[in-house]
Amino acid sequence: DVKVTQSSRYLVKRTGEKVFLECVQDMDHENMFWYRQDPGLGLRLIYFSYDVKMKEKGDIPEGYSVSREKKERFSLILESASTNQTSMYLCASSFGGANEAFFGQGTRLTVV
Amino acid sequence: GQQLNQSPQSMFIQEGEDVSMNCTSSSIFNTWLWYKQDPGEGPVLLIALYKAGELTSNGRLTAQFGITRKDSFLNISASIPSDVGIYFCAGQRRHFGNEKLTFGTGTRLTIIP
Fold first, then answer.
1. Are A70 and A78 in contact (CB under 8 A)?
2. For chain B, which terminus, N or C, has the lower number of CB atoms within 10 Å?
3. Cis check: omega of the bond before B8, within 30 degrees of 0
4. What are residue A78's DSSP bridge partners?
5. B59 CB-near residues (< 8 Å, 6+ apart)
6. CA B22, B28, B32, B38 torsion: positive or negative?
7. Which chain B residues are Cβ-neighbours of A33 within 8 angstroms?
8. CB contact under 8 A, B1 and A44
9. In this complex, which of B45, B92, B106 lies closest to A42 when CB atoms are compared?
């Protein structure tokens, strides 16, 4: 079975903190994605990566950065967390050129 | 960034009822996907559609790729309690290739006892 694992299910951080969300996949997928999910807005793409050390901005990259130093790992970084970044964050991966994305279980981040 | 309009936003139904939801876009997509998210989990792919007019079934689920390529529909027949969750449509302009998916806003399905 494909496994996409996010390091935390729940996180509470303070405004201004630097936050790292980690995602690891075990299927040798080329593509990895970070989404945030908010009620009524669905899934919005923050950043994605098609290869190691490659990254591309999604629809809402402001306030976020990413790192992909190894193929299996894709990290989302909140440089200075703000309350409007309180959300559910979902990581996904897929084979290059494939449609089906496999999702992790999500990290519910609360910024206070 | 573009989002797909998905309706209804939420549904409250009784067990055994049929369910219909749809997704519309102002742009053409060449691939439509339907995902389901169980409470506390990430979305899981239900059905993939690759051709305009295509009708595909997966058990009690049936999805259709609209003939205009700007919409898609998902039907669930004889709903059961495990159908509860959020359903998302997603579109992709290419059939294959490294291109991001655009997701709908979701339909939350609740089954009333």
1. no
2. C
3. yes
4. A19, A64
5. none
6. negative
7. 100
8. yes
9. B106
Among the partner-chain residues B41, B88, B98, the one whose CB lies closest to the CB of A96 is B98
**Under 8 Å between Cβ of B90 and A103:** no
Task: Indicate if the pLDDT at residue B95 is higher than 60.
Answer: no
A30 neighbors A51 (Cβ within 8 angstroms): yes
Query: How does pLDDT run across A42-70, given as a tens digit for each residue?
Result: 899 999 998 999 999 999 999 999 999 99
List the one residue out of B83, B65, B85, B84 whose CA is nearest residue B74: B65
Whether residues A105 and B44 touch (CB distance < 8 A) is answered with no
Q: Which of B23, B48, B40, B33 is nearest to B84 (CA)?
A: B40
- As a whole number, the mean pLDDT across chain A is 93
Best CA proximity match to A101, nearest among A5, A48, A32:
A32
B chain contacts of residue A59, beta-carbon cutoff 8 Å: 1-2
Nearest Cα to Cα of residue A92 among A100, A103, A107: A103
Q: If we measure between CA atoms, which residue out of B19, B22, B25, B20 comes closest to residue B3?
A: B25
Q: Cα separation of B19 and B22, whole Å?
A: 10
What DSSP character marks residue B75? Answer: E
